[in-house]
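so my prof wants the structure for this chain in the C-alpha cells format not the other one, which i didnt know existed until like an hour ago. anyway here's the sequence
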Amino acid sequence: MSCVAPALGPVPAGGRLEGIRLSTERRGDSVIVTVRGDLDVVTSGQFDDCLTQARRASSRIILDLAAVDFMDTSSLAVIVGHWKKLVAAGGTIALAGARYRYTKALWITGLADRLPNYESVEQALSASPPPAPVAVAGDREPAALAADREIDAVRDPPADGAIPG
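here's what i got, hopefully its the right format
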C-alpha cells in the first residue's frame, strides 16, 4: 500500500516551506500513516485520500503526527469522518506523537481525549486495541452505515459532507 503525497513546492520568498508529505507502512495488523508538514484546508483532500486507502487496507490505523507543523479544523473533520467509519466496521484509529503546540486543535475540540493517544508509534503498536465506543457522536442508523459502505466501495464522499453530484 502506498500513499505518498506529491512533492512540496518551491520555498516561497518568506522562506517557509508549506505542504504535506504522507506515507504509509503496514506493521502487523496496523497501518501507520505518517504525516509531515501542514494539515490544513489545502492539504485535507490528500490527507482524506490517504486515510481512505489506509482504512481499506486495515481496520487499525495509527496516525503518526510527530512531524506535523500545523493542524486546522479541516483535518479534524477528515479524522472524525474516518474514525466513524472505522468504529462502524469494528476498527480503531489512534494518534501517536501529537505535539500540543502544533496540533492543539485536537485538544481544544476534545478529540485528543476521545481517541487513543500515544507518545510514539511504538507505544501505539504495543498497546492493546481499545474497546470500540458504543457510539460516536453523530452516528447514523445501521441502514445508513450500510449505504455508506456501498458508496465507500466506489469512492468516499468528500470529508466536508457534501453530496457528490
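also thought this was worth mentioning. Confidence is low (pLDDT under 50) at residues 5-17, 140-154.
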